[in-house]
Design brief:
With 384 residues, this protein is an alpha/beta fold. Helix content is 38%, strand content 16%.
């Protein structure tokens, strides 16, 4: 149900502020229902797992953190309504928004009201103009950085740009991915992206019939297809088209989620790839070991995936900034704490930092390949 409050606490009489001794309120609007619910459920679990760990240890400077999670069903208008409710409940930050269409409305709203908009699950460039949105802080690499890796791999495989096609969600997310691909191709001397075939589908549906019909009509079939979608329609499109085009390469942006995509794939192929903005969940680094241990304690080991890891790490970074603050906590003071330039290590194997000019913590991208065993394997160690 849209607008359903997953976890609700007492409303502070002072909007967007936490005095000494009071709880610190964080808000989250995400997809807990609908076709993309696995993304929101994973992201929120990662955030909540770390927040709960902090609270069990006594909180932040003797103050507990109250996390208010609301369902928007991956619907932009519902997300904006949730953001307004979260403002009324006194949150100092919104964390882990899932999706570009939802962020397109909630991010400017948060900035207008001086609420920190932290670590959205999106790599869109519209979330990276910090002169316009000074309260927005990103954890993950951008779609432009992910697309650089994808286009680079396509060129390495000897595929000519004119043999590349796209399967995208028909909204701000799909267009953001397409624009990022255009930039990457232009850098390599190809300026005719308008000549390339673009198949589209509607958000929150799994109807890929029109895209498949358009693919079948192509006289010269693509040798590489870049997908900017969610796991349901993307897996359905790959399941059908990879049978028709056994030699075609399929590249997915990280938003689709490696675990959700692999769970829905029904093909035996090693020609399917996905970019990822956190290390492989099979890696033995501090953050992955921590998360596995924490999820096991909650009997949630089955929810261990790259998106849960991203949420866990995002919460860890935000708490790190809160721990450096003394006295009253509000959006402005939290922003200043984040921008301090202090280097932090959250267990991913590399250090990160925010500054007044740099509001993106990580620029690393990993490329994973489907290995015929219903799983994606890291093939480059994040060296791109």
């Amino acid at each position: 149900m849209l607008g359903f409050i997953f976890l609700l606490f007492i409303v502070s009489p002072i909007i967007g502020k936490a005095e000494a001794g009071e709880t610190i309120k964080l808000g989250m609007s995400t997809a807990l229902s609908g076709p993309s619910r696995d993304l929101g459920q994973s992201m929120s679990l990662g955030v909540k797992t770390y927040i709960d760990r902090v609270n069990r240890a006594g909180g932040v400077n003797q103050r507990k953190i109250e996390l208010i999670i609301m369902d928007d069903g991956y619907q932009a208008n519902a997300a904006l309504k949730n953001a307004k409710k979260l403002l009324d409940q006194g949150v100092v930050a919104m964390i882990g928004n899932v999706g570009t269409p939802t962020a397109k409305l909630t991010e400017p709203f948060s900035n207008k009201h001086k609420i920190v908009f932290f670590a959205p699950y999106s790599g869109a460039n519209l979330l990276r103009d910090y002169s316009v949105s000074p309260f927005t802080f990103n954890f993950r690499a951008s779609y432009s950085e992910e697309m650089e890796v994808i286009i680079g791999r396509i060129f390495e495989q000897g595929v000519e740009p004119r043999r590349v096609s796209f399967f995208i969600q028909d909204d701000a997310y799909g267009n953001a991915g397409l624009a990022a691909a255009n930039d990457a191709l232009v850098k390599r001397g190809f300026n005719n992206i308008s000549d390339l075939e673009v198949f589209r589908y509607s958000r929150n549906t799994n109807d890929v019939s029109q895209a498949l019909k358009a693919l079948l009509k192509m006289k010269i079939k693509p040798l590489a297809i870049i997908l900017v979608g969610t796991y349901g329609p993307s897996s359905k499109f790959i399941n059908y088209s990879s049978t028709l085009l056994p030699n075609t390469l399929f590249f997915n942006l990280s938003f689709v989620g490696a675990h959700t995509l692999s769970k829905n794939l029904d093909v035996n192929s090693n020609k399917i790839f996905i970019t990822q903005v956190v290390p492989s969940i099979g890696s033995d680094i501090t953050a992955t070991k921590e998360l596995r241990e924490q999820l096991a304690k909650r009997n949630k080991s089955s929810m261990y995936n790259s998106i849960t890891l991203e949420g866990y790490v995002a919460a860890k970074i935000l708490v790190n900034a809160l721990e450096k603050m003394k006295g009253e906590v509000d959006g402005v003071r939290l922003r200043n704490s984040l921008e301090s330039g202090a280097v932090f290590d959250v267990g991913l194997g590399h250090s990160m930092m925010f500054t007044p000019e740099e509001h993106q913590a990580s620029h690393k991208v990993w490329l994973l390949q489907y290995d015929r065993k219903n799983q994606f394997i890291d093939i480059d160690g994040g060296n791109r």
